[in-house]
Structures are given as structure tokens and as C-alpha cells.
Amino acid sequence: MIRQIVYKEVLENLLSLRFVLAVLLTVSLFAICGYVFVNGYGEQSKDFWKKTNENLSALREETDQLYKVAFFKQGIYRKPKPLGLCAEGFEQSLPNLFKVNAFTAELPATKGQANFALPHFSHVDWVLIISLIMSFAALVLTYDNICGEKEDGTLRQTMANTIPRHKVLTGKYAGAMITLAIPLIMGMLVSLIIVISSGGVVIGGGEWLKILMLALVSLLYLSVFVLLGIFVSSRTSHPANAMAILLFLWVVTVILVPSFSRIIFDVVYEEPTEQELQRRLDEAREEIWNNHDRYGRNAGSMSNNLSDPINNPPARARLQNATMDATNQLQQEHHNRCFQQALARRNFASLSPAVIYQRACEAIAGTGINRCAELYEQVGRYGADLKEFIRSRDSEDPVSLHLIGPERNMAYSWRAISHNPVDFDIIPKFRERPITLRQSLKLAVWDIGLLALINLCLFAAAFVSFLKYDVR
Amino acid sequence: MIWKIAKKEFLLNIMTFKFAVGAVACIVLTAVFMPILAADYQQRLELYNRNVAKNEAELREAVVYRNIRHTVYRPPAVLSAFSSGLEKQLAGSAQIELEKVPELSVTQRGGNPYLPILAVFDQSLIFKIIISILALLVAYDVVSGEREQGTLKLMLSDPIARHQVLLGKFAAGLVTLGVPVLIIYIVGLVVLLSYPMVALSGSDWIRIGLMFFASLAFTAVMYQFGLLFSSLARRSAISMVLGLFVWIIFAIVIPNVSFHLATQLRPLESPEQRDGLLTSLEEDLNSELRTEMGNLKEYFSKAIVTSDETDAFGGYYAKRRDIYWLNAERKLNAATIPVKLRYADKFLSIEQSNLNSFFAQKDLARSLCYLSPISTYENVMAILAGTGLTSFRDFIDQVRAHRNQVVEYIRSETDNFSSASFFAVCSEAESAEYTKLYVQAKEAEDEQAKARAEQALKEWERENPAEAVPLDLRDFPWFRYRPSSSAYLRKALPDLAALFITNVVLFGMCFAAFGRYDVR
Description:
The complex is a heterodimer. Chain A has 15 helices and two strands. By secondary structure, chain A is mostly helical. Chain A has one domain. Chain A has a two-stranded antiparallel ribbon with strand order 1-2. In chain A, helix 2 (17-61) packs across helix 7 and helix 8 packs antiparallel against helix 12. By secondary structure, chain B is mostly helical. Chain B folds into two domains: 2-270 and 355-407 and 477-515, no CATH class; 271-354 and 413-463, no CATH class. Helix content of chain B is 69%, strand content 4%. Chain B has 15 helices and five strands. In chain B, a hairpin with a 7-residue loop joins strand 2 and strand 3 (103-104). In chain B, helix 7 (202-232) runs parallel beside helix 15. The longest helix of chain B is centred in the middle third of the chain and has 47 residues, at 323-369. Chain B starts with a helix and ends in a 5-residue tail after the last helix. At the A-B interface, helix 2, helix 4, helix 9, helix 11 and helix 13 of A face helix 2, helix 3, helix 8 and helix 10 of B.
């Protein structure tokens, strides 16, 4: 019997105007999304490789002397990801340049990409289409699922049969989900076909698995709205009223809540500003400078003459290293505060299933703010590796003073760091370690759990309401 | 008869569930969020005042004209609570330097780099999302719903013309939706004005009035879309589905897709190309400066004494100079500053073309957005609130004008950058006297004469201390950002006109559709 209901629901939906409109709209948007992605991805990859190669060739020019390699500020750029097609994660407006040398990793910078005059929220990706348009379509498909049938009088006839109510409800739910899955899968396929046939984007094995995961999470997300539709439909007696409530709920959860959190937090918490960071850096430097005796005799001497007896190079290097460590630590703290603030705002916004869905998709696709922070961390670790490398190469040079410190002047004029040439091939190079499927699942598991929980609650609510529904 | 229909429709609408939900939602949201938006404005205003005061205090410490290197800030727009536009995206300050083009940080996003993952909330969101949906919901069944109930047949059996029915329905819709719009504006303004730091000027009130009319016109457009679909479809369910899909296309699809198309169709100037141009220009400048320096080398060869101190903005001023050094430096300034100013204009034109490529992209995106009344409305609101791109371009222009004024001011005060007061606190006469005494002390023949000369020098120095007196800035052209309301109005006019024209066209289409509507 359940199968019969599902069959009837699907057929009825397939023939309706709203289904046709939904399919047309979503599939064409998915097509646009694929097309736009192909163009953007090609350009971004070209740009990325160009800049990365420029960076490496500049590094190669520094290899004639080891200390130059240590001081050279490498520019690490963020690589565009094929899965940006599915969840771009606002990467266009997030930092994309990380400068690093053996001593410090600068704060992430945003360099020449998006137009500052355009709003941030203008990237068409799968997540946008699904979280806004398809969730809307889900409501439009289900708002009259129960109360509409009541008005038509068909619900009474169904119930006159020997079918229990839970079966009717499950049938209706399954019918709506199958109907929604059609444009979803069609759209994803269209978009993937466009992307793959363009030839510029290679999607590997692990990524196919991730895309499958994304499709499943999308279905889970859409099921929230299907259940919401059925629930509201079984609480009201007129489809028009159901639509009004559903639209209101949709607007609040999908559009308003995600934008509330920022303004609320902006008023309540003060942002960590660059001036504040600068002030703290100055304070820390002054503190170290005022107590320079701690690092040895005459650590604060700035004389450039090595033979000057006032100079004490090891103490000076210690002082410089201490200053650099303090700087690095403060920068790290500042970065973490920025990152935590953004996360806190988003966690607050995750009252909305759209935000939960967005977060889950970003985690699975390995894009977005988490990737940026992870990349910054990797860049920092790379800087430390580079320092170790410099230290080990430097120890092979008998002429060097073996004082690995961030003062270029010392390294240059006193050979505090070796001046021997170094083989370009053995210098460690930065390579981003992509997030594995397991890691991303670990990140996403809470969000998926939350979505499942919302589903369960709504299903229970819909079930109870439908049990008590007056079908007359 | 029109009035009777309008009254009946109005009463019917007011009593509906959907209207109650929508209107209550709007008003509650306004009442809850307006205080937050106003507090946010107040915070930004405080920050602005702090910045301006700090900067002015530092500027008043400047001792020589060379070190006038202050920063000017753009005040937050008071109406940003109604439409936040680009307010939070663009920092809006610029450093004024004599030798450089104003370094505009308006093009840089300040603050936390991770915040772009969050959307910005403002009052216009309530209008553009909730009121527009409400308008569609109120309108979708006015014709097709009445046909389903059979009341349309009854009504038209009376001796009443169809256009009267339509006009009545239109008027009723407008009045119905005008009620929540009016309440939102009143609540919003009352909350906003209850904040002590908020002060609205006359032009602000005009702009608020225009924003109100724009909101009404926009609501009417959305209502008429609903009316059109209602008089095209036979069943109200169909007209609702049509209306909702059109709404989602207007609200989400068109804005997003048009921004994308704009970035694809009109790509930005590459930053590498700009950097290349800037570097080559800098090289030209440096080579020209080197030749000027070379010409002046001999003047510096005689120089003896120099001593500097810092004053405002990390700059240095000359505390003591012998007359040769002083004169040489004066000549150097008179020769190089005009060259640097000339190059500053060239740098400016490169920056300008770069900025223009951003603006062109935005303008294209805006033109594409005209397809959607929701985007058009958003645009009008941002322009009228003074938070749109217009306002930022205005700010950039005013900053440039201000820089030119400052340059002219310094030029006139320092006799074309050639006077000593441009970089030094010691005057020519003092330097000459100092040099004389100094040379006497240096070139004294015997110990006694030397001691005497040194004594004289010391005494002279005690009598004429190199006192650093802050500049007299009475005639200084202080920067004050004046939002030019008339320019905003001119910019907003096409969009306002577009809204009105859409209204008229839609009414025509409704009329045509309803005229042929089968009421059975």
C-alpha cells in the first residue's frame, strides 16, 4: 500500500506546474554554476601556478647563499579546488596569500581577487542553489501535501481504506523526497558533465566519494524542509495558511538568522583590530628591549662593527630571536582570535539548518574558513621546517657563526648564518596537505548529526500532528 | 464604486492570516533589530570620532610643513541602519601625503579577514524579503481566488467596468501593504532617534522620505506581479506558485548570477600589470630625482652641522642646520618637491584606472540587476542611505580635492616649498649667525680665542634655543566630509524612475490580462 501512495504522490508531483518550474530553475542554475566554475577555475589555476612558479624561481635565485634562503619571504597562494564547484565556502573573499620565511609567517592577507565593491555573497555554487532554491522548492512541493488533500476531499477517501496513518505519512514523505531528488540529481549531473567535458578540471577518486557524500547530505538537508512542509501542512486546514507560515519560517531560518549573528556580535564584542595588535607588538618589543641584559652582556648593542668589543653576537641573536618569538606568538594569538570570532558568529547562526548544511558541505569539500586556518597553520609549520633545514645546513659550514637569528644585517655582514650556496632541490618546499575524507567526515559529523536530529524531531512532530489531524 | 471595492478588499486583506503573520513579523523584527543597528552605528561613530580627534591632535603637534601627513576618515552614514550597502565592507579612510597620491584604504577590507563568511543584516532586508513576499501573498488570489469562490462572477454582473474593479483592488492592496510599511518606518525612526548620538539633518529627512516612497513603489511592484499572475492563472494555487518562483528568481537568482556575469564579462585589471606600471613609474621618478640631487651635490659639500628631531606622524624636522646645509636643503626641496608632485599625479592616474575597472564591473552588475525589481530597490536604498558605491566615490573625490588643497596650502605657506619653514625650525638668519659663531669656534687660532668663541656659541645657543613651535594651522583646510545630497538624488533618480515605470507597465499588463479574464 505504501508503494501505491508513493507512486501516486510522485506521479502527481511530476505533472504539476511547480515541479516543472523547480526542475527548470534548478537545472539551469546548476548548468550556470558548472559553466561559471569552469571559467573561474581555469583562470584561478593558471594564476595559482604562475604565482607559485614565480615564487619558486625567486627562491632559486636566492640559493647562492644560504642566509638569503632563510630570509626570503615566500608567497604561498591558496590553490583552487575542484570541489569549489560544490561548496566554494566564500573562499573568494577569504585570505589567499600567506607570506613566510624561516623566522616568521605573516598574517594571512587577501590579495587582488574579488571586487571590493561587490557584495560577498555572490558566488553560485551547489550549496547556494540547494540551500536557498531547492529548500524553497521543497516547501512549495509540500505545503499542501495534507491540507490540500483535505480540501480536495481525497484524504478522507484514502483514510477510509484500511491503511494506517503512519504509512500514509511515510508514503507522502517518500514521494516528496523522490520528486525532489530528481532535479537534485539531474542538476548535479548536468553541472558535473559540463565541468568534466570542459577538460580543465580533473576530479579524482576521493573527490567522487566526497561528491556522493555531498549529495547525501543535501538530501538530508532537503528532507528537513520536506518534513517541515508536511508538519505545517498537517497543522493547518487551509493550504494558503500553510504557505504563509512556511514562507515565514523559510525566510527566518534561511535568510534572516544567518545574517543576524554578525550584527549582534558586532555590537556585543569588540573586534580585534590591527591597531591593537600593533600596540601589543610594540609593547612586547619594548619590554624585551628594556630588559636586554637578560639575554647576555650588551645584547642590545646595535653596532655594525664585528671587531668592536662592545658586540656580543650570541646575546644579540638571542635577543632578536626572543623578539621574533614574541611577535610570532602575538600574531598567532591575533589570528586565532579573528578565527574564533568568525567561528563563534557562525556557530550562533547555526540555529539555521542552512548554516549547518553550509558548514557540513565546506567540511566535506575541504574548503572555506577551516581550510584557510589549516593552511595558515601548515605554512607556519613549513617555516619551522625551513628553519631546521637552515640550521642543519649551517652547521656544516665552519666559517659561519651558527647564530640563526632574524636580523639580516648580522647574517649578511658577520656570517651569522652560512654564506655557502645551497642546492635548490634539497630545500624543503611548501606543499598543501589536503584534508582526507576521514578528517573531513570527522569535521562534518556533528553537523550531519544535527541535521539528522532536526529531521527526527520534525518527523515525530509531523507524525503526531497527522495522527490528530481531522481529515473531514 | 471603486471605493467600495477597495474598502471591501482592504477589510478582507487585513483580516487574513497571512497578512497578520507577515505584518507582525516585520514590525517585531524592526522593533528588535533597530536598537541593535542603531547601537552598531553609534559604536562606529564613536570610533570615527576617536580616530578624528587623535589624528587632529597629532597634526597639531607638527612643527614643520613637511610633516603634515594626516589621515582623513569617512564618517559612518547615519541611515546605514536602513540600508547597510557597502558600509561594512569598505573601511573608508585615506592618508594624505604631500608626495604621494592619497593612499586609499577604502579599497581594502579592514578588520577580521574571516568575517566575510557571514552575511550583513539591515533594515532593507526586511523590506526586500518579507514585505515583497507579503505583497505576493496578498495579491496572488485577488482575482483567481475570487473566481474560485464565485464572487467575481457576482461582482461583474453589476454594472461596473473591469478597470474599476482592478483599480479598486490595486488601491486596496497598496493601502493594505502601506500600513506595515508605514509602521516599520515609524518604529524604526523612533528607535533610531532615541539614541543620543543620532542626529538627522534636513537632507536626511528628505532622503528618508524618498526611501519611504521607494519602499512603497517597490511594494506596489511586487503586489502587481502577484496581481498579474492572479489574473493570468485560473486557479489561485497556480498563481501562487508562479509568483513564488518569480520571487525567488528576483531575490536570489538574478543578483547572484548578474554579479557573476559581470565579473566574467568585464574582468578586473590585473594587479600585476598595475604593479608593473607603478614600479616603472617609480624608477622614472627616482632617476629624475637623482639628476636633481646630482645638480645640487656641490651645495651639500660645504655642509657642517645637522641635527633632527621627530614630531607628528613619525616625521622628522631639522632642529639645527648651518646656513650651507639649510640653503642646500631648501634648494633640494624647491627642485624635487614639484617633481614628486608631478609624479604623484601620474601615480594617481594609474590608481584611477585601476579603481575604474572595479567601478565598471560594479556598474555592469548593477545594470544587469535592473532585471530584478528587488535589486533595483536595494540599489535605491543604498544610494539614498549614503552607503552605496556613489557615496564612496564621492568620498574618494573629496579626499583628492582635500589633498590638492593641502598641497596648495603648504605651497603658499612655504613659498613654493623653498622656505626653511618647510622642513626646519631654525630660520635663515639664525642659521647664518649660528654658522658664523660655529666657524669662529672651529677656526680659532689659539686656545683662548677658541674658548671665547665656544663660550659665545654656547651663549648664543642659550639665547636662541631651537624651539619647536607647532605650526599655526589657522588657515589649514580641515577635511570635512560633506555628503552631497543632490548627487545622491541624481544617482537614485534612474532607479526610482525604473520602479515607477515598472509599476505603470505592470498595471497595463494587469489591465490587459484582467480585461480578457474568463470569470466563470
